[in-house]
Amino acid sequence: MLHKYTYFRLLAFTLLLLSACQKPATTTQTQDSLTTLAFGSCNREDLPQPLWQPIIQNKPQVWVWLGDNIYGDSDTMVVLQRKYNMVLQEPGYQQLQQEAKVIGVWDDHDYGKNDAGKEYKMKEESAQLFWDFIGEPANSPRRRQEGVYSAHTYGPAGKQVKVILLDSRYHRDSLVRINRVYQTNYTGDILGEEQWRWLEQELRNSTASINIIGNGIQILPEEQVFEKWANFPKARKRLLDLIAASNAKGVILVSGDRHIAEISKTTPPGMSYPLYEVTSSGMTHVYSGNVVEPNKYRVGDLIKQLNFGVLNFHWNDKQVKVEMLIKGEENKNLLEHTVTY
């Protein structure tokens, strides 16, 4: 028979393990101040990839994948694995992996099916391939959660940046497309209740000066006819209300998917400062021709060239200045905007 003290120690240890399996960990990756974070999306593995060296020239400490990291589009995991391996064997990306911490989330094509949501039947298997690609340890609690969301904190107290990455595929309700236009799902959800609870905890408990929320699809723009949070107005309002109610400092949104780049800005009800979204999309291919697209929140130009995003952080004791950049081939600045928090 176990001694009572030994029994309670084992019980406590078991409960701790169960808790770790149920809750994805928020990880503090470094105590060094974060000065440069880069991000991008829409990276077709069988096309030329000219942006890795320009990305590396910016010396990012963190690289964030924002979806369509491959164009898998298959129920066969062997196909997805082969395409992930093509990116992993790309010399420029290998160099970036040596110089920066890589984190990220998926969108539909690397999820496994174009425009898919929770109905995709291979999502559990696909999630494990995604974690392999990102480099998530085999024993990580994240591998046992439903969805590939994660949170990461960088920097010392007073100069922290938190990156919260949302999975907008695994739990997303259905979306109907008629005549190439996505219809509004007025009551549909995107994140699922467990992820919503997790997000609220991450925002309310954040001590970071800058909180970056990233996912595959655009959050602020309402007028474009492609996939977006505005197709699910109840979920979009819930997200913006949560950001405002959390009182999290310096929230910045980042997204991909669109094969264009732009910066959007609005001030949702209840927020004491403007909310920006930086969309960077088209690492290997972008829209061609005279694309004209309305966006009442747009700041600056619509970019239709190969691009990646960069956030530069300039710290002092009382504030942080954030440079929001869209860059292209030869590290050319295509769009820039600076905000002080």
Number of strands: 16
Radius of gyration: 20 Å
Distance between the amino and carboxyl termini: 60 Å
Helix content: 25-40%
Continuous helix count: 8
The succession of helices and strands, N to C, reads HEEHEHHEHHEEEEHEHEEEEEEE
- Give the helix/strand class: alpha/beta
**Shape type:** globular
User: Residue-averaged pLDDT, rounded?
Assistant: 92
- Spatially, the strands of the biggest sheet line up as 1-5-6-9-10-12-11-13
Oligomer: single chain
Percent of residues in β-strands: 15-25%
Pick out the low-confidence regions. Answer: 1-22
- What does the largest sheet look like? 8 strands, mixed
Signal peptide: 1-25
Keywords: Signal
Protein name: Alkaline phosphatase family protein
Organism: Pontibacter cellulosilyticus
